[in-house]
Amino acid sequence: MKIVTIHTEKIQNIFEELKSNLGGKITFDLDEHKLEVNNSFAKGSIIGASFNDNISYVQFDMTFSADVRLDILNVMSSPVYFAYCSKGNLSHSFGLNGEERKFKTFQTAIVTSKDKQDNVLFFEKDIKTKFTFIIVGTQVDENNLHSLNQKVKETFFENNTVQDFFYVGSYNLKIAEKIEQLNAITQTGVVRNLLKEGILRIILAMEIQQHTDDLNASKDTNCLTLKEMEEIKELSEFIKSCPEEAFTIKSLSKKSGLSPNKLQEGFKLIHNRTVNDYITHVRVLKAEVLMRTSDLNISEIVYCIGFTSRSYFSKIFKEKFNCSPKEYKFNLNPMAITA
After folding, report:
1. DSSP readout, 16-48?
2. What are the mean pLDDT values of the chain's consecutive 10-residue runs (339 residues total)?
3. By the 8 A CB rule, do 25 and 106 touch?
């Protein structure tokens, strides 16, 4: 088993230690660090950055050729880690002798430990693992009672006394969607930094809300299995990849192997929409992209994304963007022909 030890004070230190243990090359974009590794032991990337309010994040997308133990040492503080597993699974223990607990694909985990108590993560060899850590409180901030660090500790610990705490949430694909948005950001510099910080704060809020909802809900609230969640996720990606297809509930049910009722349940749980509403939503978003990036006129766009009625398209487009397609395209390019 490969042992990797990192400290939590500064993102820069984390990446220097990861590079020392895993190899690879570090690149920078403003305050964001990225380690890319491609050798006989490890393949993939690790990205991380620090933001205001004492928030940092580290995102792993890695495959190891041997089992890996990652020791996170709390030297100066006891931060709270909000984790989400997008692919594969992870195990955690407090110290080497602590109980080993696992969280799986699409699950959240909230973890913190007493002062100078290590957090230990275990990666299984030959399994692609993608997870995101949002770290709150890498520095002691006891004098600022209104800091995010203090507010988070008040939420989870009585009298603000940090103790060993491990919570695994129920399956949540809405967070997976937000993480995909995070990873889809193409801007650079300060714009990238601001966009990432905004999405990370939303993800943090969603993880805290997940904890609250799980405490208040019955065990049967989410009746979908992990396999069914994965099928819904794949089906959502399929619809986004070709929204012009003439989808029906019957054809989607056959493709996924899920009953129509399970399909509707899954889409309402993940997207807060029915299957047909989700298809319409994806088509409208695709239309907006085509308006910005192609020379197609509105009529051509309507039919190439699967709509059969221009008037219906105009109606739902205006509901989403507060203007007609013609007005939207004109504002993009006043000289454009929008027939």
Report:
1. HHHHHHH--EEEEETTEEEEEEESSSEEEEEEE
2. 83 91 92 94 95 87 96 79 92 90 90 82 95 80 60 67 80 88 90 92 92 72 76 91 91 91 88 91 92 89 89 92 88 58
3. no
**pLDDT value of position 137:** 77
CA-wise closest residue to 110 among 180, 39, 16, 209: 209
Token pair for residue 138? 């890498």
Q: Is 312 helix (H, G, I), strand (E, B) or coil?
A: helix
Question: Hey, which residues does 62 pair with through a beta bridge?
Answer: 44, 129
CA distances from 213 to 72, 172, 176, 208, 219 (A): 29, 11, 17, 9, 11
pTM of the predicted structure, to 2 decimals:
0.74
Place of tokens 């999405």: 199
Distance CA 105, CA 111 (A): 17
Count the Cβ atoms, other than its own, within 10 Å of residue 10. 13
- In degrees rounded to 5, what are phi and psi of residue 144? -105, 95
The separation between CA 38 and the C-alpha centre of its own chain, rounded to angstroms, equals 24
| CA 194 – CA 292 distance, rounded (Å) | 23
pLDDT reported for residue 95:
87
Distance CA 66, CA 43 (A): 12
DSSP 167-197: EEEEE-HHHHHHHHHHHT----HHHHHHHHH
Element spanning 300, H or E: helix 298-304
Distance between CA atoms of 275 and 253, rounded to whole angstroms?
11
